[in-house]
Known about the structure:
The chain is of the alpha/beta class.
Amino acid sequence: MSESIIDVSGLTRQFxxxxxxxxxxxxxxxxxxxxxxxxxxxxxxxLIKHLLGLLRAEAGSVRVFGLDPVVDPVGVLSxxxxxxxxxxxxxxxxxxxxxRYSRAFYPAWDDAYAEELRQTFALDAAATVDTLSKGQKARxxxxxxxxxxxxxxxxxxxxxGLDPVVxxxxxxxxxRTIADEGRTVLFSSHLLEEVEQVADHVTMISHGxxxxxxxxxxxxxxxxxxxxxxxxxxxxxxxxxxPATSVPDA
Length: 250
C-alpha cells in the first residue's frame, strides 16, 4: 500500500455537551477518491477543519503529509486544494483579479492551467465575483482549488444546493484530476449517489463516529443479495437507520 496522505488517530472533539467527533481514526493512502459520507451535522466538516488546521485536536492526533496542520499550516495548506459549499470568495474582485490574488499563496500555481480551467468553466475574466451565479461561484472556487495542482483536493459538500449541470461539471473535474494526474481527493457529502459515482473508498460517519470504512467495491460485494447490489444510500440506512439526506443541518 502506498504512503498515507492523511493519518487521524483517536481524534475526539466536543462543543459543550455535544461530541462532534468520537475517537475517529482514519488513514488515506495517496491516490484515489475517498468519500466521507454522513448526514448534515454528523461530523464531516469538523473532521475536515482538523485536517486543515482550523481546529486543534482535543484528544488524539492529526497528520497530513506526515505534518501537524496546526503546527505547520504553510507546509500543509500549500499542498491542499479546498472547496466548500460556502464558495466564500471576495465578491468585489473580478475573476482575473481573483486568480492573481490566489496565485500569490501557492508557489506551484500554474497560470496556463488556471486559464484552461477558466475557459473550460466558461468564466468571464472581467466579471466580478458578486455578479456570478451560485454555480459560477462554485466553478470559480474549484478553479482556485485546482490551479496549483494540489496533492490533496478536499471537497466539503461542494455541490450542495447546485443544479444538476453544475454538479456534473464538478464531478467531471474530480474524475479528470484523478485520471490525469493521480491526485488524492477527499469528497465529503450527504449526497451519497454522487459519492458512489466517483469514490474508490467510502467512510460513513454518524454522530461523530465512523460506522464503516472500506473500499467501495468491498462494501458493495459484502452487501450483495443474490444478483442485486444495494445502493450506497440503502447500505447507509442499514448502518445508521435513516437516509443521509433526512437529517436537518446542525
